[in-house]
Amino acid sequence: MQQLEEDDDLLLVVTFYVGNRLLGIPTEKIQEIIKIGVITDVPHAPGHIIGILNLRGRIVTVIDLGTRLSLGSSQRGEEGRIIILDDGGESVGLMVDRIADVIRIDPQELTPPPANMKATQSDFFDTVYRFQGGLVGLLAVDAVLATD
Amino acid sequence: MDILDDEIILGYIEESREHLADIETDLLTIEEQGAEINRDLVNKVFRAAHTIKGGAGFLNLTTIKELSHGVENILDMIRNRALVPSREVVTLLLLSFDKLRDMINNYRESNNCDIGAIAAELAALAGGAAPPEQQEVREQPEQGELVIPLPASDIAIRVPRSDLERATSGGGIPYLLALDLMGDVPRPGVSLTDFIGMLDHCGAVLDGQVALDLTGGLDEEPAELLPFFVLMVSSLNSQELAAALNISPDKIIPLDESVSPVAEPNPTPAGSSCIDPPEQEFTPPPARTGSLSPVADHLRQSTPPVAADHQGGGGSLLPESTLRINVSLLDVLMNLAGELVLSRNQLLQAILRGDQGGLKAAGHRINSVTSELQETIMLTRMQPIGTIFNKFTRVVRDLSRELGKEINLVISGKEVELDKTIIEGLSDPLTHLVRNAVDHGIENPAERHRSGKSAGGTVRLHAYHEAGQVIIEISDDGRGIDPEKVVRSALGKGLITPEQARPLSDKDKRFLIMMPGFSTADQVTDISGRGVGMDVVKTNIEKLNGLMDIESEIGRGSLFQIKLPLTLAIIPCLFVESSGRRYAIPQVSVVETIRIGEAQIADRIQRVGDAEVLLLRGEIIPIIHLNEALGISAADAAGDLNLVIVTNGVMQYGMVVQQLHDSEEIVVKPLGRHVRHLKEYAGATIMGDGQVALILDASGLAHSSGIATISGAARSELKYQEPQREAVGESRALLTFYNGSQQLSVPLELVERVEKISAQAIEYVGGRRVMQYHGQVMPVMEVGDITSAGILDEERDLVVIVFAFAGREFGLAANTPVDSLECGSAVDGETLRQEGIVGSVIVSGQTVLIVDIVAAVTSWHPEWFATEIQGSVDTYLPPTVRLRTGGAPNILLAEDSDFFRDQVSRIIEEQGYSVVACPDGALAWEALNEHEESIRLVVSDIEMPNLDGLGLTRKIRGDSRFRGLPVITLSSLAGEENMAQGDEAGVTRYLVKLDRDELVEAIAALYPTERI
Amino acid sequence: MDVVSTVGEGTVVSPDGDLNEVTAASLRRELNRLVAGGCREIVMDLARIREMDAFGLGVLCAARTTLNREKGSFSVINASPELETLLRRTGLSRHVSISTAE
Q: Count of B–C CB contacts within 8 Å?
């Protein structure tokens, strides 16, 4: 990952693809990003939980972000990655299809999610950002990781 | 002699601590047994005291030696039935061992310790020693040292008796000089060195001591005198001596033969000396044999039960700065350290070469090795909770006696392991809770009687694992906690307002006792009041990230529960596999593993309604298929069935899995919050290959599979055909197996585990059959080694039946199917008796032979107990029995104390001999047989387990092969009687322990110079 | 006159000259000051001491007593053979670790 200077006003966001949707999470919430390795299935776990993996001795739950967002399940391809977030002391992973760039966002340019976004999804998006002709949906991480 | 070499003394301290660790429990057991003493147990405690005494003597820890000698006497009397271990006797012993423990922990200061009172008690109880004289001169025959304590001081004059004897043999008179180095040394011109030289001129100075503790500290006014006591022998009389030294004759006290003062010293010494005359009394209180004297009472108050002892100063356990860890863990650590070094080298190289790829690789490697290292080190800190649980037996015993209550303490779950710091942090809160239960919880017998309860109450300490947590429960069947009383008290103290109190549930009300400032006024007693409230307990538990819960019922009892959500808990688990996935089942939940051959499935497994059940030894047990229960895949393939019988504490059920794997100790990792709620799992663990395995929760799995205990109705539906049973005699449980086509069995109680193995698992090393088992090398036998009954078919499935024997594990390779059965009939020990077969039993018309596994092991591999096998197969033998140097041993040493065995071995080796050292007489005999050709001399301790020195000697003498073999015995019991016994047994020379020169000389004298 | 230096956790005191009635008093004050200041490990370096009298011995005793009370440690190093003999024969060596100059 490139070393970008932190500007006080600007937010650094890691963008990634789930399916063909471009999403983003602020870098400060991200612990690390790892390749997809062996994930142990946890039978009877909720549908969006892929399983658990070993991250340097810690057990990390891996969530299929696509499933969670009702965007279709993760492709688990070569480019697939797991974004590890710090969830109140615990580490949780989000599986995505491809990591894109780290961008700098001016928070003032963030706008609320579009009205035509499905109700089931809008909970998971804080805001969106216009970027190079497309939209980056910034994830409401807490909502995504909620255990309801 | 100064305190010796640190290494030697630390070794002694370690060993002593170990001996002392179990003593409390042992003594309490001895007390329980009362007149029906268990001689072995008493011997064990005796040997502990004996060993401590021996080492202390060697290391000049005179006070420790003295006290352990006193204790030893009492124990000797107990084992000879000259004294019954009554409550008073055991209490005294407990106090003595407490004191010994203190001294061992502060060995540097131990020589200054005042044990006068307790030693007097012990002596009085022994009934032998006369009340100490004014000067309290105590004789110590075995090492022959004289101790004269100085008046009003902790310092004592010490001199080997032999020195004194030698000095007085020429007719000299022994004197005790009470000098003042500041006042008595003529000034100017005479230096201290000169003065001491003057003393030397007048006779033989045997010992001199400044009374260190009478000089005061740096912050006090400098004393105007420096008391200095000298024990010397002179042919001058007192007057002459005084004149020669230019001191007042008052300061010279002649001593008679028994080293007591001969004349009444002048009570008002001349001069500025303010040293009190030696008749300063130290009068021990009169000892009343058989009842607790005020001294012991006083001692008990000043030496409170172990628990409280360590509550002072932050409440930590004994300041032990050492830890016992498993050697196998150390091996792992060593390997990891090696790996780290390699990775570091890799890293450095990559940096030098600017090799990006190499950097990455090295980085990865260092990453993983570091975390493994970290984890392994954490593991070394795991301790069983039994270490703190055990001390509560004593706490409850003493406390309940004090309060006049009868209380039984039941402890379970001692083996649950926790990190050392957590255990230390639990010590105080648990102590408080236990004392609470005893003090406030359990009623006195009268009150209990009125409530229709049994006179004695029970307090229960229970520790167990559940869902990745450790749960500790302290419960009692006492009066319970009255929520209303609690509320009233809280209101009275102004801790809550009536409005706040109103909506509280009973449970909430009880929780009020954990508010700061609470403690029901009418219940604060000296014993558990102590200014430590329940709120402190709660805080301490929270510091450990734990939670507390209270359940209680008025009149029935209370339960305090501590839940520790640990990130690190280690438990042994059985690994199983279904549908290609591995799962771990905590060993504590596993009852047994069973394999049912395809042919027997129909018989053993039946359906009751929707459920499947297993018929196991007359019981009906519901079963589930693991993969179905977890919804992984459908039915299991046909063929033999592997079942794990598990229990959730309440009921048992069977779990069909596809494969059974090994048992391992694993680290429990908690599951994240997204999956934590799943009842089926207790956590997860990381296996050796880095993969994650889920840990199954037997109770949760039962729940989710919908297993309920089959109702009585359903049971009666099932007509179970009991197998033909012969006469109802003693029911014997056997494990049956096959050796080829021959069915055999072994007593089930001897079997530790049965594991499936492949034929390749068995290796041959040095001509012996072994296999890798749990990181150890385990010897494996075949039935053919024991008896001729069938031939092991290596083409078929193999199992190894693991036996644990004398602390070691052995395996017996066998063919499947392996089953267990109960034979109601008596074992026929005659008809088919042959070598290796202990008997036979008829089951369902078949004759099943019972293999004599015990005899097989001891006779087939006696050398496993005696010598080290060359090569790499040397890790499973107890390290205490081994050949010390290469080549055949020529001297046999038998000594049970690790410390002494080491010392004596060293001494012998220094002389150029090769030693085989054994920790007891029985093993020594084995070793002697093994090395019949080369051993030329035997050195043996007397007091040893299994076969003592005299027994060994008699065996040697009784065997014509060892005619003329010199036997030297080492003992600290040098009395006439003992020497006579030694002579009778045939001992060649009888030495007192640890006189190095004597031993060397004896060996030199007795070792034969030519072949016999 | 006295050299006081800190070595690791402890303080080394290296008095010079003789330890007699006169010098003992000031050494005593020095040691007291150290202990009052929190020092718990004191090593007495006798390399430069030729002779010691009862007062000097008394200070050593007092130092040991005080440090013992404070659960600290007091030891003696670089004692000349004569001093070592003296300390041994007066029994101080049983309570204080004495090592000689090599």
A: 90
